[in-house]
Amino acid sequence: MYTEIARNKRNSYVLIFFFLLLIIGFCWVFSLAFNNQLILYLGVGFSLIYAGISYFTSSSMVLAISRARPIEKKDNLVLYRTVENLAITAGLPTPKIYIIQDTAPNAFATGRDPQHAVVCVTSGLLEMMTKPELEGVLAHELSHVGNYDIRFMTLVVVMVGVIVLLSDWFIRISFFSDDSDSGGGNLQTIMMVVGLVLAILAPFIGLLMQLAFGRKREYLADSSAVLLTRYPEGLASALEKIDSDTKPLREANRATANLYIISPLRANIKGGSKSRFASLFSTHPPTAERIKRLRKMETHA
Question: 66, 184, 228, 248: which could join 35 in a potential S-S bond, CB 3.0 to 4.6 Å?
Fold first, then answer.
């Protein structure tokens, strides 16, 4: 499992590098299509500023969107102590703890690093889970923190957002621009066509990369959670309960769905019953497969 953690961290850097190249390449094609080098510098500059602001404010935005409220030790001693003990075991600072008042059971972690991490659970999760199951869920979320998944997922989400914005910008300008007297000849025409194709495909490619990235991270966090609790059945049982619950999470949306331990959007794959094609567009791996892997694990004290 330690080898898997190291490999996934390396793959994360590769994915981030790919996104950066995609953004720079997109802006370069954009500048050639309009025969204006300034567009390249403005596009890359805007992307970096937007990414920087989003990176530092993303957790606050996620919590606001989710209508989560912070709690202190006196508000829920059992939850606070469970998070605190698991954080000590994992060698992590105790993250801030938030609760969403919703009967649907679920949880997520966010933040840019372990020092600024947040663990958020729904009130429905606290009511439904036994102590070992709650420990399994919280260990999973703390594993996202310890594996720096929260940082990389934040960066990926931000970069996908940049690609979508640049694509929309390019398409709008292309439709409203008058290139009859802009010059540039055949090269500019070719690059305009290439740019439009990229503008249409780039968000789709970015989304697929984001989904694949998230699925790998869920498997890794499941494995890491077992290292913390030494009890895979706790998390496996919790996943079964969450997956079988039919109550919709009221504050769920596509912007935050990939953060949760199981996607709160009912359109996503559940229990592995959907087709393989449908699973390509799921923010999470099939829950049945995750449970199967957990129950095959052997731990050693």
Answer: 184
